[in-house]
Write a structure and sequence with these properties.
- By secondary structure, the chain is of the alpha+beta class.
- It has helices at about 15-30, 130, and strands spanning about 55-60, 65, 70-75, 90, 100, 110-115, 120-125, 135-140.
- A hairpin with a 5-residue loop joins strand 6 and strand 7.
- The chain is extended, with a radius of gyration of 33 Å.
């Protein structure tokens, strides 16, 4: 007895299988995207970086960096309303107008005051979130 295969029982050609697989992936990719935004996890609450203990101050006059200007460092008199307290360290700005203060407590709030020769003072108090991540600008 002889058994003949019908055309309906013939295996699909490889090219057709490949086309179907690509189409299935394309459909899955289209259904995977949606018009509504996907929720993103909220960032962890920020905390001071214990390895950062230096602040960088830039002293300027009319936007131009100025060397040899005394910069006083202090802690605020009252933490709730930060205003410079009694200075415990004074450092002159360098050639490019920068003064760097090290040995700071990573979670502390500090104040810096640039004292210009004309009696003009420029001050800024900043918590760790500012002085650990950016430059403090003093002057005009």
């Amino acid at each position: 007895m002889r058994v003949e295969k019908r055309r309906n029982d013939a295996p699909m050609p490889k090219v057709l299988l490949l086309v179907l697989a690509v189409a299935a992936l394309a459909i899955a990719a289209c259904h995977g995207s949606s018009s509504s935004p996907t929720p993103t996890p909220s960032p962890a609450s920020p905390s001071p970086n214990p390895s950062v203990s230096m602040a960088t101050i830039l002293v300027t006059i009319n936007g131009t960096p100025v060397p040899k200007i005394p910069v006083e460092e202090s802690t605020p008199r009252v933490p709730a309303s930060p205003r410079p307290g009694k200075p415990f360290f004074i450092k002159d700005s360098g050639k490019k107008g920068y003064a760097r203060f090290s040995g700071l407590k990573p979670s502390g709030t500090y104040c810096w005051v640039a004292v210009f020769g004309s009696g003009f003072k420029s001050s800024e108090c900043a918590g760790w979130a500012v002085w650990q991540t950016s430059i403090i600008y003093l002057g005009t």
